[in-house]
Amino acid sequence: MCLTGTLLRRVLAVLLLADACAKRRCNYKEILGSYRQVIFVELQNLNLTGSFNTSKVREACPSGKARRILVSIYGMTQQMKCQRSGKKMSALEKPLASMEQLIAQNCSPEYLGKKVSCSAIQKTQGKRRRRIRLIRVMEALITCWQKLQSVFMLSK
Q1: What is the pLDDT of residues 39-61, one digit of tens each?
Q2: How far apart are the first and last CA of the chain?
Q3: Are 140 and 96 in contact (CB under 8 A)?
């Protein structure tokens, strides 16, 4: 079978368009599966998945659609990435980096919106304060992941 140049270009254009449309959103199944298998285990090793006082944690996640929750999680991971001092990552920061990487790999940048600018983020001064803030953000992220899982399961 011989394909002409015009037909070959059209087939190639359709394939490229289909590939671009396929990456328009996020693969929630992959994101949540990897979260349960990898990141949740990392958080358990840090003893952050137990019960914590949610009355002190302000509502960091929007309610409603999975996309809004996922974008909120991604934004928090980026903000905390801006807080990091030095090149060496602490044990608390590793799950954050894994979360950001997982979401970035399974979602198109257009779906997630614009990235957080580190120049707009006010850095927390002092190791102790930074650690306390990091723990609070991690607790908020755990709540967000739980909310994302329940919203995703309800939408199935």
Answers
A1: 888 888 888 655 455 445 456 77
A2: 43
A3: no
- What are the tens digits of pLDDT across the range 101-155? 999 999 998 888 887 778 777 788 888 888 888 888 888 999 999 999 999 888 7
As a three-state string, the secondary structure of the chain is CCCCHHHHHHHHHHHHHHHHHHCCCECHHHHHHHHHHHHHHHHHHCCCCCCCCCCCCCCCCCCCCHHHHHHHHHHHHHHHHHHCCCCCCCCCHHHHHHHHHHHHHHECHHHHCCCCCHHHCCCCCCHHHHHHHHHHHHHHHHHHHHHHHHHHHHHC
| Residue located via tokens 């306390």 | 132
Residue 61, Cβ neighbours under 10 Å: how many? 21
Contact present, 96 and 77 (Cβ < 8 Å): yes
> pTM for this structure?
0.75
- How far apart are the C-alpha atoms of 129 and 124, rounded to whole Å? 7
| Contact between 151 and 66 (Cβ < 8 Å) | yes
